[in-house]
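re: ur question from yesterday

yeah so i grabbed the chain u mentioned. its 81 aa long if i counted rite. heres the sequnce exactly as i have it in my notes:
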Amino acid sequence: MIETARGALYTGITTNVERRFAEHRAGRGAKALRGRGPLTLVHHELVGSHGQALRLEAELKRLSAPRKRAWLTQRGVQARQ
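ran it thru and got these structure tokens back, copy pasting raw so excuse formatting
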């Protein structure tokens, strides 16, 4: 999960977190993140299969911003408010 300079949370999946985050920071990632930097990687976790990762991503994208922050807090992650 990536947090933008204004505190928005972006969720996505990848097989290589470091590479994908570098792409986002360079403006070659998701359009939703372009021009919204600086970006901060606030959370990543290994999920079993590709299908499980897609399901988790879809679940998280349906959450409101406060619920995403609560989800992060449950995992011991403190994102900006």
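noticed a couple things. The chain has a mean pLDDT of 92. also The radius of gyration is 12 Å.
anyway ttyl
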